[in-house]
Every structure is written in C-alpha cells, then in structure tokens.
Amino acid sequence: MCAKATMEEFEALLNESFEIDTPDEGSVVKGKVIAIEAGQAIIDVGYKMEGRVDLKEFAAPGQTPEIAVGDEVEVYLDRVENARGEAVISREKARREEAWDRLEKAYASEERVDGAIFGRVKGGFTVDLGGAVAFLPGSQVDVRPVRDAGPLMGMKQPFQILKMDRRRGNIVVSRRAILEESRAEQRAEVIGNLTEGQVVDGVVKNITEYGAFVDLGGVDGLLHVTDMAWRRVNHPSEILNIGETVKVQVIKINKETHRISLGMKQLQSDPWDSVEAKFPLGSVHKGRVTNITDYGAFVELEAGVEGLVHVSEMSWTKKNVHPGKIVSTSQEVDVMVLEIDSAKRRVSLGLKQTQRNPWEVFAEKHPSGSVIEGEVKNITEFGLFVGLENDIDGMVHLSDLSWESRGEEAIQSYRKGDVVKAAVTEVDVEKERISLSIKALDADTFSDAVDGVKRGSVITVTITAIEDGGIEVDYNGMKSFIRRSDLARDRADQRPERFQVGDHVDVRVTNVDSKTRKLGVSIKAREIAEEKEAVEQYGSSDSGASLGDILGAALKGQK
Fold it and tell me: What InterPro entries does this protein's entry cite (predicted)?
C-alpha cells in the first residue's frame, strides 16, 4: 500500500513537471542571484535551471558591477542546458535585446537617447546606449572638429539615432545633431537681441588664417582679419589670443543664415580722415615696407595707412628688376607722396623721387665736351653702351667711333669689359639719354684739311699716283681722286700719262662732304670756269675772237 502511494506521488510530480512550460531558447527570462563566486554570479532562472554570468556584464563600460545575492535580474537564455547541465545565460544579451526594443521606439519617434562614449575606433567612437553599442562618426561628435575627445569619454549625454539595422546589429548616432539643435535655439534667441552697430563683449573661440570666431554668449560671430585693425594684419594671431575677451561691434546680421560679422577697427578713429593733412603731396616721409608684389611695394606710413610704390617709381636706373631686389619686407625707407585718393583709400608713393635724378647730377658734373672713362657694358648693332657713375649708361653711336673708319668696321675692335674714354656730346635729362663720342677725342683731320675750302674754290693739289682711270692727288693730307673725264676740258688732253707724280695742279672743288669725308676736285671744272670768266671779261662767243686770243688777253690783264 505504501509502495503504491509512493509511485502515485512520483507519477504526479512527473506529470506536473511535464506540464511546466520550459522557456524558449533565445528569449529573455527573469532570474534571481543565489550566489557570487569566482567573478561570476549564479542565477536561478526557475524551471529548476541555474546559470552563470560574468560580473562584468552587470557593469556599464568603465564602471564597477553593482550586483548582490537576492537581486532579481533579466538574462538572455542562449541554451537550456550545456555540458555541465547548466543553462547558458547572458546579462549582456538581455540588456541588448531590451535596449534594441527601446531604441527602435526612440528611432521611430525621433526621440533622443542617452549614452556614453567608451571607446575609439577607426573613423569615430563607440557609444553604449544602455546595452546596445552604437557607432559615432568623428564628423558627428561636435559642430567643429574635436582635437581631444578625452573629456567626453564616459560622460552620459544625449544622442540622436541617425540609422539602425537590428538584423545586422548596426546603429549610427550623432552628438552633433543635438548640439546644432540646441545651438540653433540659442542662436535665434541671442541674435534676436542683437542689432547692427551694437558694441558687445565676446570671447575669442577660434583663430584661422582669415579671421577669428568670437563667442557672443551662445552664438559665434566672424571677426575678419581686415576688420581687426586699420593697419595691415598678416595673421589674426598677431593681435588676438584664444580665450581673450574683446570688445567688438556688430557690423552685419544675416537673419536667415544666422551669420554675424564683427569688427574691431570700427571702434577706433579712421586714420584716412586725416591723411591729406598729414601727408601733403610732395612731402617726404619715412615708412616701413609691409608687402612686396610683382608690380611694386606697399609702404606703411602710419598704422592703417599704406601707400603703393609702383615698380616704375622705385629706381631711376633699375627698370626691369623685381621690387624684391630693390627693397625688402620690414625695411624702413624714405618715400615721397605723389598722389592721394581718399575715396578709394589709395596713396601713390615714390622711392626714386627722394634721391636726385642721376642724369641731372651727371649733367652738372660733366658738361658737353668733358671727357669721361667707363667700361663697355653692351655692344649693339648701332653702337656701344658705356657704364657711367650712379648705374647709368651713355651711348657711343657708330658714327662717333672713328674719323677714319666706317662705324661698322670700327666697332669690331671693341669688346665687353673694355675701358674706354669718350667725350660727352649731349645729356638729355628728360629722355634719360647721354650721348658720347670716342672720335671727338682726336682731331678731325678732314675738317682741319678743308678748313675754309668751299665748293667752287680753286686749290692746288699734289699728284701722288697715276692710274689708267685717273690720278690720285693730295690736299693737306686728304686724298682725292680725279677721274679721266675730269682731267681736262678737251677730250684729247684727258690722258693721265701727261701728268707726273709730284706735279702741282690747280683744281676746282666740286664737293665737300663732311659725312663721307670726301673732297671732290676737277681740272676740267677749273678750265671751264676760267673760260667762262675770260669770256665774260674779254669777249663773247659772238665777237669773232678766238679762244686763244681771249685767254691771251686775260693773261696779259692778270700781269
């Protein structure tokens, strides 16, 4: 009887156990911590099943676990039984499933979610969203690039879910979207209280090549480098430091884009208001070279006032040289004010005007006719260029090289670097030209020889050579050639052989050419002129007297 009752009780208990629904694998179940040992929590999940979970799964990233015996927790049931007869459970997976359900609802309703950045990965950071791990791209950390994300690590803060895929386990979040939203609200409020022309205090937040961003209490304004000071500012860091409090004026507000333009120089007096009084035309001032370009150099006359020295006004002599070879940045120079345009805020300056015109100086020191010495700098097809004092050149034209030789021949004897002497023939200060002559240093033998001789004059020459085509004669060292046809009036007497070398012959001058240095003479022309003169004085061609009678009478009259 007793045995029968025992069997019945066992059968009832067995049936009861079969009636109990075992939870499905892959579901979240509730359990109770019954012991903590060896870094693990032993959890009774009911159904006569126990499992083990590492304590670290009960702690948020970077924090210590808070778990004690008797605590009720939810865990994820991976498998009902493992090789040791225990349930395979996970607190982390349970939190993940719970988190995904919560995050999907937040994503659908576009609500913010809380999380903490706990790690750095390629291209961004990992964020714990209360059990689910999300990716935070580097571009979504802040409204501006973040150099050091250390202060943000482990701090609980809101995020916006940009994209999520539960099947793939991907979640992408943004911290920047939250900041931009709050900033937009804050900006709208601050901008609403600002007016153009208002003077406010701000803190320099960031410095760039083109300016500085100034925090006006929740909204940033741009202080452009050109609005920092009236003078030229090469880089904003010259006058500003990050964190510095500055007083600025609101120049412009764009209500649509919420952009604010700020200025500092507007709080100071404009130096251009007194430029014409301080720097009258023609006055000379000392300035500092601030910038050099291909077309000239900018010189600061005072803070905020710069003028341009055009390349054409930099040097009297260096015409095709880059300005950087004449002046250097930060160099102090004397300049003359040439022109002022206050409307366009431009001042034209001259550097060479502060020095004497070297051509004027040369003209004073070397009047026409004076002798100079210089080096041949260049040889061209039309003459020599000779280097003179103060970096100026003088030119010796081909025609001024030699009395005796043609210019093309004479120039062949000169080389660059030769030191030559020459006479100054002309100085044109306005055209910046100096004419020189080498042949002027020697006497002009032709001019001396023909001094007083004019066309039509009768002179006595000496025969130096006899040729078939005529005879060569000499007059005061100048050679001339009388052609056969000019040896006599009568053709029968036009014979060169009737003359002897050394004979003296009277000839008539037919041409005196100083340029070609040639003296034209003719015996025939002299005889014709004598005949004409004799006819006029002693007879006529109609009187019947012979030429011999007339010439004889003329000769007697001369006696």
Answer: NA-bd_OB-fold, Ribos_protein_bS1-like, Ribosomal_bS1, Ribosomal_protein_S1-like, S1_domain
